[in-house]
Structure formats: structure tokens, C-alpha cells
Amino acid sequence: MNNFEREVKQGEFYKHFKNKVYQIIAIATHSETREKMVVYQALYGDFQFYVRPYHMFISEVDHAKYPEVKQKYRFEKYDVNVGSIIKEENTRVFMQSTDYVSEKPILVQSPNENNDVLKEGEVSPLLLEFLDCKTYEEKLDKFVTLKNKADDRMLSDIAMSLDITVESEKLQDKYEEIKTCLLTFVHFEDNRMR
Prior knowledge:
Layout: E1 13-16, E2 21-29, E3 36-42, E4 49-53, H1 54-57, E5 75-79, E6 84-85, H2 125-132, H3 136-145, H4 152-161, H5 171-193
Antiparallel strand pairs: 1-2, 1-5, 2-3, 3-4, 5-6
Helix pairs in contact: 2-3, 3-5, 4-5
């Protein structure tokens, strides 16, 4: 598959070869040069927005410069529900758009990776992965990947692990409260390390 066959669409998720996940916000056109551009948002840290020429976004990794990188493309389509790259050569799967701009998360109650309901006393493997994160930035990165997987029990457990109280009743609002707390923790963690 060459670069010109790769199609990037608004709402899709991509993983950079340096291991960070982003969501496509828009495909834009440069007002002066008419060059096609990709507007995308980081799903970690302070959720910065970036712009990159379309041809560069879909280009292959410079393996001469980065010989240790196994990823073929600079950005590869990423399934946030599973936590893995979607092989574009084998499938044309398009992700359901999640609205990060208006901050209205779509949460589905599926407490573990197999969509099985946990039995009393069982702990979700996804929750364990979150708890294993060492820094708040890692926790925030992991939390964002749980957006379509978290149920009420998991959000309550995460809040408890962070020693925060979540006041909201709705699942979506609980998610947002926890994310806001994590963003604050990341901000202060970063400032403390300087």
C-alpha cells in the first residue's frame, strides 16, 4: 500500500511511532498554498492540538534515522477499544468518532477487554493496568484509552485509587471529573519535576 492510498478521516485515532496516541480533529486546507493538512489532538498530557501536512502524516517512518522502530508508518491507525494498531493492509475499519472537541465522551459499559461482566470479587484487567502506571501522565494516557470501556464500578475504583471524590451521578460526568483531576495532577507533577 503506498502513501497515496492511505486515507485519514476526522475522528479516527492514530498512534505515532514514538508511542503516543492522537485523534484526528479535521482535515484542513492551507489558505495560501492549498496544501492538505491534518489537524490532530494529543490524547495525553495537556491534550495539545497539532497541524501537519497530510503527506507527512501518512508517510513511512525514516528507518535509516530510526532503525529500532518497528512501525511502518509515522502514524498508524489505532483501536482505542483494544489498545492496538489496526493493520491497514488487511482491513478498512473506521473508528466511531469520539467528540473530544466538545468533551462529550461516549462511554459503554463493558468492564473488561472481552466485554464479559465481572463476577463478584473479580478485578478488571484494565483497572489493573491503570493501577500499574507509575506517573500521573501514564495514568492519564491509560485513562483516555478506557473512555469507551469504563463502567460505573471501574470509574469508582479509579477515583478511589486517586484518593478523589467524584460527585457526579452520570457515567459521562464521572469520567470527565476524573480526567480533569488527572490533568491537574499531571500539571503539578510536571512542575514539581522541573
